[in-house]
Amino acid sequence: MGIILILSCIIGLVVNAEVISRGGFPNGFTFGTASSAYQFEGAVNEGNKGDSIWDTFTRRPGRIMDFSNADTTVDQYHRFKVTIKEASYELRKLDILSRKLRTHLRCLPLSGIKPYATLYHWDLPQALEDRYNGWLSKQSIEDFERYAYTCFKTFGDRVKYWITFNEPHGFSLQGYDTGLQAPGRCSIIAHMFCRKGKSSTEPYIVAHNILLAHGAAFQTYQIHFKDRQGGLIGIALDAKWYESFSHKDEDTDAAQRALDFSLGWFLDPLFFGKYPLSMQTLIGQRLPEITPEMSQRLVGSVDFIGLNHYTTLYARNDRIRIRKLVLQDASSDSAVITTSSRGGVVIGKKAASNWLHIVPWGIRKLARYVKDIYGNPPVIITENGMDDPNRPFMSLNTALQDDKRIRYHRDYLSNLSAAIRIDGCDVRGYFIWSLLDNWEWNSGYTVRFGLYYVDYRNNLTRIPKASVQWFKDVLR
Ligand SMILES: *[C@@H]1O[C@H](CO)[C@@H](O)[C@H](O)[C@H]1NC(C)=O
Ligand SMILES: *[C@@H]1O[C@H](CO)[C@@H](O)[C@H](O)[C@H]1NC(C)=O
């Protein structure tokens, strides 16, 4: 379980492209930071935790770039109270796993933090993977509903914002098509890498079950808790913006398909009760059917849309479709080639991770697209951020002076502000990924996404980077 905590505030100043402040955003706009239990908590064997599919996965050789695991990571399981105190500027967030959730949440009223809790952030109990193949089984829908019910019942007096799933598009593909993430299923690479799986069908089955599980949790909340607790339910989708590679129709269509196969895959069922037409056409029988009954349950089953947005890519038509011929996997179904440069010019400077190019105008286009296509629903930017490399010989002072991160957030926030003020997008919150440096899945500890530096060689001490002061000033 991941959780995002923030403190709501008011106050206003003036915004322009250079100076960002609360005043550039509507009253009641929420600022926060985001984290996830698995990447933060460590304490792998404590509190009756039990193995998750990520514990199993990281123990398999060759999966994590620096051969690390998340057994300790930044030890947030033991240090969350300290973190709350240290980071007690106005926003902060913590990560919490279910075993610790109760304790964490007890602290919140005292610290003035408003929690946004995520029910599923990738760490499925291994026991469910073993018993019935996890998300591949319809049983997961019922079990998720029961789990959600328990969380609503236990924590719903304090948690008013619930996120059912984090990045279902990302983990459907990484976990079941490429096999690069837990549970590591695929059929595209040699069998020594993926022992089981079917890359052309499983991602779609998993996503389908997740949508139904989301719908079931939403409905349970409406029936049993909404009146009494008055909370809101959303889902956090990983959403890149795709810019057409050229003005040619075939590339414009490709950019649309890229959006259909990522954002539309989940939002179309939730708003229109069906998968995007381009997906139906290109995937055919391999795409599970949304029956009229399912459709009725899904439509309208979100109070807000969470967008995890980091970057933008160019998209162009894949005419030759070699990947399709060779790999026969879900990722090739869209017939799109994405690139980060055009005519030798990159779309934006790279952060530490290869996938993360800095393209601030993309967030405005994305917000505008969601407004136009889905009828201006409430949106929360549930993650936005960039990473620096973790270089062993970099001086501490250099690492703490994270000007690139400050510029990143300044430019993304000014474009977001324009989306709200000028384009009329109903965006209600913005969470920085992440509060602390932490364990970045396949990249292990090779990158640093935090506002706070974690000194891995000195007892995991947390030290504020320059961006902490900058963010405080924005919020003042
Ligand atoms: C949006 O970001 C771009 C950089 O991508 C920046 O040049 C521009 O000033 C920003 N626009 C607004 C309205 O802040
Ligand atoms: C490491 O940090 C924790 C949390 O601040 C503290 O409780 C502990 O005593 C420290 N350990 C050492 C060896 O300094």
TrEMBL record:
Keywords for this protein: Glycosidase, Hydrolase, Signal
One Gene Ontology term of the molecular function aspect: beta-glucosidase activity
Pfam families reported in the protein's UniProt record: Glyco_hydro_1
Residues spanning the signal sequence: 1-17
SUPFAM superfamilies, per the entry: (Trans)glycosidases
GO biological-process terms attached to the record: carbohydrate metabolic process
PROSITE patterns: GLYCOSYL_HYDROL_F1_2
Superkingdom classification of source: Eukaryota
Protein name stated in the entry: Beta-glucosidase 41
Origin organism lineage: Eukaryota, Viridiplantae, Streptophyta, Embryophyta, Tracheophyta
